[in-house]
UniProtKB/TrEMBL annotation:
Domain Formyl transferase C-terminal residue range list: 206-305
One Pfam entry name: Formyl_trans_N
InterPro entries referenced in this protein's UniProt entry, alphabetically: Formyl_trans_C (IPR005793), Formyl_transf_N (IPR002376), Formyl_transf_N_sf (IPR036477), Formyl_transferase-like_C_sf (IPR011034)
All residue ranges annotated as the Formyl transferase N-terminal domain in the record: 1-169
Protein name: Methionyl-tRNA formyltransferase
Taxonomic source organism: Streptomyces graminearus
UniProt cross-references to Gene3D superfamilies, sorted A to Z: 3.40.50.12230
Family annotation (PANTHER family): METHIONYL-TRNA FORMYLTRANSFERASE (PTHR11138), METHIONYL-TRNA FORMYLTRANSFERASE, MITOCHONDRIAL (PTHR11138:SF5)
CDD domains assigned to the protein according to its UniProt record, in alphabetical order: FMT_core
Length: 315
């Protein structure tokens, strides 16, 4: 099939590479301009550069809603559009233009985790598996019929970075498998159960701020979800920002006020956590490694020279 690819960052790059390696013909690529947004500077392999290396025409757009782009799409005469990590709304006159419609590739197990940063949100929420879904695009975000889907398990110590590497390797087989089904003439696919759909927004500064009213189990997953190269989860100590680079759930249970710097346990320093921490039934979060506001990284047992005091949400 003749394919136009809409994509951005490493997800789009992997999709384009899979298309270039396949029997399908990539006739045009549409991608976003480079961004300074913290999450868009991560996994930022260039779709534009890869397309140019293979002599594929490239169009740069923030939004695909102008007349010039529509004309270029019509001239490209695609059988199908394939999109992956396209960051803005694609209007109906674009996604319905190709003869076979538009296939969107999304890094979650739809209908759950539609929208943005699905791997991070899924890890924070304790999901047991994550994956990649290829679905036909319609007027609702990430809601079209599922053509292909694959899942991988979430391990007990997996970080968001680990899950990225697990799922990015699924892009090629899911995308090409879906395209082969469509090329074979299949038109009936699996409808999504919209009662199971969940939608998530882009990650921002407040989303990585530690709230000590959360249970320690949730905070431990937040720290893993904000693994390098993502911005680290942070709190404040004595009015200064303190990033938490490593943490585990405490073995023992600790009662008191959330945020209290309480006790050395193993290689960590336990912070009281949970809205009902006063009951003494909660585990704490044992911080093992931190980064100070001046960039120093060190074990928590070296940073916290004395117990007592509090970690706070704000300075």
């Amino acid at each position: 099939m003749r394919v136009v690819m809409f994509g951005y960052q490493t997800w789009g790059h992997r999709t384009l590479q899979a298309l270039l390696d396949s029997d399908h013909e990539v006739v045009m690529v549409v991608t976003h301009p480079r961004s300074e947004h913290a999450y868009e500077k991560i996994w930022s392999d260039s779709v534009a550069d890869l397309a140019a290396e293979h002599g594929v025409p490239v169009v740069i757009r923030n939004r695909p809603d102008d007349e010039e782009l529509l004309t270029l799409l019509k001239e490209a005469d695609p059988d199908i559009i394939v999109a992956n990590n396209w960051r803005t709304w694609i209007p109906p006159r674009v996604y319905s233009l190709p003869r076979r419609g538009t296939l969107n590739v999304h890094d979650s197990l739809l209908p759950k985790y539609a929208g943005f940063s699905p791997l991070i949100w899924a890890l924070i929420n304790g999901e047991k598996e994550v994956g990649v879904t290829a679905h036909m695009m319609n007027e609702e975000l990430d809601a079209g019929d599922i053509v292909a889907q694959r899942a991988v398990p979430v391990g007990p110590s997996d970080t968001a970075t680990d899950l990225f590497h697990k799922t990015v390797d699924l892009i090629a087989p899911v995308t090409i498998g879906a395209l082969d089904l469509i090329a074979s003439g299949q038109t009936e696919f699996t409808r999504q159960d919209r009662s199971e759909a969940t939608f998530f927004h882009k990650r921002a500064e407040d989303d990585i701020r530690i709230d000590w009213n959360w249970p320690a189990e949730d905070l431990e997953r937040l720290v893993r979800a904000q693994s390098a190269p993502y911005p680290a989860a942070f709190t404040h100590h004595r009015g200064k920002r303190l990033e938490v680079l490593g943490a585990v759930v405490s073995q023992n249970r600790y009662g008191g006020t959330p945020g209290r710097i309480f006790y050395r346990e193993g290689e960590g320093v336990v912070i009281v956590a949970g809205a009902d921490a006063r009951t003494g039934r909660n585990h704490g979060l044992a911080i093992t490694r931190v980064r100070t506001d001046d960039g120093r990284e060190l074990p928590a047992t070296e940073y916290f020279t004395a117990m007592g005091g509090y970690l706070t949400n704000h300075p």
